[in-house]
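Memo to structure team: turn this sequence into structure tokens by end of day. - J.P.
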Amino acid sequence: MKIGVFDSGLGGLVILKSLVKGLPEYDYVYLGDTKRVPYGNRSASVVYEFLEQAVAYLFKQDCELIIVACNTASAEALQKIQQKYLPSHYPKRRVLGVIIPTAEEVVKDGGIKRVGVLATRGTVNSGAYVREIEKLNPRINVYQQAAPLLVPLIENDGIKWSQPILREYLKPLLREKVDVIVLGCTHYPILKREIRKISGMKVISQDELIPQKLKLYLKRHPEMDKRLSKKREVKLLATDITKSLQSQSQKWFGKKTLLIKVVLN
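Reply from structure team:
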């Protein structure tokens, strides 16, 4: 049985790369919904429909555990997947998100009082980060900023034009004098150096924390760890492949990266 990693596009390859580096012994299947990226501007019902299709496909690929690296899908559809889809279809398998682990990382530092969250419009509108952080520490104030242009920019090799756009998105958070900035989208770690440079602040990036969180999860669930295969194999799937997407995947995951096209029903 394998570990599945799902994202709305190819940004999740950054998370996968960190997982393979931190937990190299496991087998992974990555699925990027490149045909329908971005998810951030879509309705919650459509995001759920897409996530259910992706989860079903990855389970058919022999995945025991799926990490929903997409923050928008984690915010708008994960709970329904966990509470309704899994019990009736795959009651012994698990689907995990990235928002709760990120919220836990925020509150771990007891000195943080004001948090800035940079995310897609869908994640911001869901209020998931506000809800999860305040649940853990109600004294923390959370300020959100939607950044709808960043995912299309990243997916279309437009990072060289990102600085002025980033400055505009970061201004409201810096005006609020936040203590830390959370990158609430799987794609944003690709811009973390620029964000740190522009803001001069501590930045919480999911590629730096998800591997450790997964290690802890598997330690708490040894029965699942025993079911996971450990052949160090990685398969990369995408719902659309172009020369540009193939080039991007090689930049973010490695020169030998080869995407395989699949169709979600």
